[in-house]
Amino acid sequence: MALTRELIRDGWIRQLVASSGYPAHVLSDEELDRSMATALAGHPAGEAVALFAYGSLIWNPAFHFQRREIARVYGYHRRFCLWTHLGRGTPERPGLVLGLDSGGSCSGLLYWIAPEEIGSELAIVWRREMVTAAYRPCWVMVRTAAGPRRALTFLINHAHDRYAGRLDDEEIVEAIATACGPIGACADYLFNTTAHLEQLGIADRSLHRLCRAVRAVQAARAATTSAPGSSPVAGDGTLVPAAQQQMLQQGEGQEDDDAGQADQQQSREHARDVEPVAGLEDAVGEA
């Protein structure tokens, strides 16, 4: 199903978490408003807010904006590092979604939200990304064709119990290829993000490599009639590690991990973290 503006506004994500029986504290309206107010504290009145998107907000923003442009942040990179047990996975077979993690650099979209719409439109974003606070709203400096800009974005929360850390590529591929939840297949999340980045002229080699490996897993699982020993499918229906590794060996690490230490330090000098509500966890967000 498509995650629409109306579903987000009406609290569908929070209802999904609350009704699942899954142990997660869902933020109240008051907690969400307080978190957003904290993030916006000090933002100049009457000025548009720039929001940096690196995942599904690129192809399904669901909020109103004035304009958008390509931007790059240094000191952070896009990584499948957040387990999702409800949005694009299940407790039995969780999926993975993207977070902005430390190190490297990342190209994405910078959305400009009009001053008079900041409250209403960021409320949509908060009710999507901060349902239970797996991300940390943070101000960073991004580079655009017009020069550096100050932007709000969502970093992964390392203290969150669903933070996956640096997983092996094989584990990432298996989770993405096989997980599916109420919002849809985890593989579609990967494919959509990769395709829309490509349409924008942003080449993320790591995502393209994951796409090839995930499609190989899906093809192998579909090849149920193959003769024993001739298919790279293990007894449980998963792709054996050697077959996965063959699809992944064209490069190591994240495509945007190539920023030097000077660029990383420059980004962090300009970043101002906004502390999330403590002790909470997220299940659906996918910035």
Structure characterization notes:
By secondary structure, the chain is an alpha+beta fold. Helices cover 36% and strands 24% of the residues. It has helices at residues 5-9, 12-20, 29-40, 56-59, 118-129, 169-178, 186-199, 205-222, 241-248, 261-270; strands at 49-53, 67-84, 95-113, 135-144, 147-156, 180-181, 184-185, 272-273. The strands form two sheets. Strands 1, 2, 3, 4, 5 and 8 form a six-stranded antiparallel β-sheet that branches. A two-stranded antiparallel sheet has the order 6-7. Helix 3 packs across helix 5 and helix 6 (169-178) crosses helix 8 (205-222). Mean pLDDT is 83; it is low at 230-247 and 249-285.
Short summary:
The strands form two sheets. Strands 1, 2, 3, 4, 5 and 8 form a six-stranded antiparallel beta sheet that branches. This protein has a two-stranded antiparallel sheet with strand order 6-7. The protein is 36% helix and 24% strand. It has 287 residues and is of the alpha+beta class.
